[in-house]
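Hi R.,

Here's the chain you asked about this morning:
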Amino acid sequence: MLSLSKHKMRFEQRPVNGLIRERTVTKIYLVRHGQTAWNKEEIFRGRTDVPLDETGLREAQLAAGYFRGKEIHAIYSSPLLRAFQTAQEISKVCDLGVTPLQGIIDMSFGEWEGRSLREVREKDQERYRQWREEPHRVKVPGGETLDEVRVRSMATLEKMVESHSGKTLVFVSHRVINKVILCGILGLDNSHFWQILQDTTAINLIQHKNGKYILSLLNETCHLKSLEPLHGKIDPLERVKPDF
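And here is the predicted structure, written out as tokens:
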């Protein structure tokens, strides 16, 4: 397991007239991409470049509305199309460009990519069981581990915080990346992966202040309310099972 101490930025606070000066606050809106056909069909995506489907594009447009009127200084996205399309919709209301960021690209699922959840569950039973029960111990042949994902994604987050001090950023990424980053800032190891939900176009807000991360918003999907008649009512417990 990785120690969180490796993933926290430390700043020395210097007294000013006998008082500790409060550091500026850097904000990162961490957004998951919209729905793709492979989300709906429960197919492992990973590095496979799957575009948004019709519903996913609408979700992205609604997520963009959440940022209307907010002061955003920069938008970064995983280079994969499903994330980049989502970021582009957000960029339209912020009047900004989108910069691809390799460090928040989706986890590589290796041999599982392009295979359905059902197929993996039936043909790779022990590894799938471990993925559900001990995700931090799994390495799919040809893929990444959650620890490997955590190292690169947290390093990217810290670099962006350092280079954009006092600014407000948007990161558009993926379910796995978001979960691992959220575990990281909360001081949780990757065994807690399944205890954090990330719905499509979920919005999270991370603040960095005085050398510490603060989670201000988690899995916000209020912007999708108008899609409820299309999606239908979903039992929250049922959503936890596939978490796709």
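One quick note: Confidence is low (pLDDT under 50) at residues 1-21, 233-242.

Cheers,
M.
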